[in-house]
Design goal:
The protein is mostly helical and about 475 residues long. The protein is about 80% helix and about 0% strand. The protein has two domains: about 240 residues, MFS general substrate transporter like domains (Growth Hormone, Chain: A, Up-down Bundle); about 160 residues, Up-down Bundle (Growth Hormone, Chain: A).
C-alpha cells in the first residue's frame, strides 16, 4: 500500500464522534492560522517539562528501589528478597504503560492534545508526589506496599499517554520542514531527567547522613516533583490546541474508534513505528543502566566512576539530541536513522574490547560514544514516529508505538543483559543481542515512509472546506 492509499484508508471516514457538531468546533478560518513563535516556544518547553518529569521519576524511583524501598515497604530477613520485591514495583510502571497508551492515546485524537497532556502531567506528578508521603510498613502494615504498587501503576499509565502528546505538541505547532528539531523536545527528557535526579540525590547525599537519608531524606526527591508539575501545568494551561486537532474538530473528522482504525488501516505504519524504537531503547538501557553493573562487577570500578561516565554522556545529549533532530530536517531522516542503527549494532563490540583493561578514561569514551549514537537515533525518532500516521490517528498511533516498543525493548533489556552475562560470563552474547535489535529497527525504518511535508497543511485546508460545507448544510437553529 503506497503513501496516498494509506492516507486515504485512514482519512476517508470523516464521521465525528457523537455530539460533535459544527457549532462545537472552531470556525474554519481559525484553524488555518499558524501559532506565533511564542506559542511554539511554549509548546517546546511544555513538551520538555513532561518528559523530564517522567525520567526524573525513572531515575529517582530506581535509586529508591535499590536503597530504601526494600527495607521500608518489603522488610524481609533476606535483604535480597526485599530488594527483588522492591524492584518488582519498578517493573509495574512498565507493565502499565500500554494501558496509558491505549486510554490516553485514544483520547488525544478524540478530545484533544492539550486536555490529555494536562491530565497525564497531573497523574504522573501526583503519583510521584504521593509516593513521598507513604508511611512505611512498620506504621501502617501491608497497606504501605499496596499503596506503593498502586501509585507506581498510576505513574506508568500517565507515562504511557504522555509521550505521544508531548511529541505532537511541538511537531504540529511548527513548520513540518523543521519537525525533527521541534519534536526532539520530548526526547531531551531522558538526559535532562537523569541529570536532575542525580543532582538532587547527590545534593541530599552531601547534606544528610545515611540515617537521615533513609529516614526522611529520600522523600524530598519525590516531593520536589511537585515543583516540576506546577511549572509544567502553568505552561500547558496557556497553550492553544494544535492546528491539526482544530482542523479535526472543525471538519468533523475526529475518529470514533482510533485504536481499531490504527490496527486495521495503518498496520504497516504501526509496525514501522514500534520497530524503529527497539534498538535505541536497548542501546540506552545498556549504556545508562547495565553499564553500571558491568563496570562494578566485571571491571572492578567504583560505582561512582561508572555513574560519572553516564552523567557526562547525558549532559552532552541535552545538546546532541536537538542537533540530531535538526540534522534530520536537512538530510533524509530515514537514511540518517539507518546509519545510526548500523552504528548502534557495531558499537558494543568496540566498547567491550576497549574497556576490557579497566581504564576509566576508555569507559567514559565508550559510554559517550554510545550516547552520541543514541542521540543520532533519538533526536529524529519523535518526528519519524509521528509522521508515519495520518493526522487524525497520530496521537493514538504514536502512543501505541511508544508503549508497545517499550515492552519489547527497554523494559526487558537490563534483565536480559544481566541474565546473559550471568549465564555465559562474557560480553559477546550481549553484543549479539543488540545486533538482533538493530536488525529489527532496520526492518522498521525500511517499512516506514519519508516525511510528507505538505500533509498537515493539506489536511487543515481539506478540513476547513468540510467545515464550511457542514456549516452551509446545517439546518438553521441546529
Amino acid at each position: 500500500m503506497d503513501n496516498e492509499q494509506r492516507r486515504d484508508a485512514a482519512g476517508d471516514d470523516t464521521r465525528a464522534p457523537r455530539g460533535a457538531t459544527p457549532q462545537e468546533a472552531p470556525p474554519p478560518e481559525a484553524i488555518a492560522v499558524r501559532p506565533d513563535r511564542g506559542a511554539l516556544l511554549r509548546a517546546f518547553v511544555a513538551s520538555l517539562t513532561g518528559t523530564s518529569l517522567e525520567w526524573y521519576d525513572f531515575a529517582v524511583y530506581s535509586a529508591a528501589s535499590a536503597l530504601v524501598f526494600g527495607r521500608l515497604f518489603f522488610p524481609s530477613e533476606d535483604p535480597l528478597t526485599g530488594a527483588l520485591l522492591a524492584f518488582s514495583t519498578y517493573a509495574v510502571g512498565y507493565v502499565s504503560r500500554p494501558l496509558g497508551g491505549f486510554v490516553f492515546g485514544r483520547l488525544g485524537d478524540v478530545i484533544g492534545r492539550k486536555k490529555v497532556l494536562v491530565a497525564t502531567l497531573v497523574l504522573i506528578g501526583a503519583a510521584t508526589f504521593l509516593i513521598g508521603l507513604i508511611p512505611p510498613q512498620s506504621a501502617i502494615g501491608p497497606v504501605a506496599p499496596v499503596l506503593l504498587v498502586l501509585l507506581r501503576f498510576a505513574q506508568g499509565v500517565g507515562v504511557g499517554g504522555e509521550w505521544g502528546g508531548a511529541v505532537l505538541l511541538t511537531s504540529e505547532y511548527g513548520d513540518t520542514r523543521s519537525r525533527g528539531f521541534w519534536a526532539s523536545a520530548a526526547q531531551i527528557g531522558p538526559p535532562a531527567g537523569n541529570l536532575m535526579a542525580n543532582g538532587v540525590l547527590a545534593g541530599l547525599g552531601a547534606l544528610l547522613t545515611e540515617q537521615q537519608f533513609f529516614s526522611w531524606g529520600w522523600r524530598i526527591a519525590f516531593l520536589l516533583s511537585g515543583v516540576l508539575v506546577l511549572f509544567g501545568l502553568w505552561i500547558r494551561m496557556r497553550l492553544e490546541e494544535t492546528p491539526v486537532f482544530k482542523a479535526m474538530e472543525a471538519g468533523g473528522d475526529r475518529p470514533q474508534a482510533p485504536i481499531k482504525e490504527v490496527f486495521t488501516t495503518q498496520p504497516r505504519a504501526l509496525a514501522a513505528a514500534v520497530l524503529c524504537r527497539v534498538a535505541p531503547d536497548v542501546l540506552y538501557a545498556m549504556f545508562t543502566v547495565f553499564v553500571l553493573t558491568y563496570a562494578t562487577q566485571k571491571l572492578g570500578m567504583p560505582r561512582s566512576s561508572a555513574l560519572t561516565a553516564v552523567l557526562i554522556g547525558s549532559a552532552l545529549q541535552i545538546v546532541l539530541i536537538p542537533l540530531a533532530g535538526a540534522l534530520s530536517d536537512r538530510w533524509n531522516r530515514r537514511r540518517l536513522y539507518l546509519g545510526g542503527t548500523v552504528a548502534a549494532g557495531v558499537w558494543p563490540f568496540v566498547f567491550f574490547l576497549m574497556t576490557g583493561g579497566g581504564s576509566w578514561a576508555l569507559l567514559v569514551l565508550g559510554v559517550v560514544g554510545a550516547l552520541v549514537i543514541h542521540s543520532l537515533l533519538y533526536g529524529p525518532q519523535a518526528a519519524f514516529v509521528a509522521e508515519q500516521f495520518s493526522p487524525r490517528l497520530r496521537y493514538t498511533g504514536s502512543s501505541l508505538a511508544y508503549t508497545l516498543a517499550g515492552l519489547i525493548g527497554g523494559a526487558v533489556a537490563p534483565l536480559l543483559f544481566t541474565a546473559l552475562l550471568g549465564t555465559f560470563g562474557t560480553w559477546l552474547p550481549l553484543a549479539l543481542y543488540l545486533v538482533g535489535t538493530a536488525v529489527l529497527t532496520v526492518i522498521g525504518v525500511l517499512l516506514g515512509r519519508d516525511a510528507d511535508h505538505d500533509e498537515d497543511e493539506r489536511y487543515v485546508r481539506e478540513s476547513a472546506d468540510r467545515a464550511r460545507e457542514r456549516a452551509a448544510t446545517a439546518a438553521p437553529g441546529d
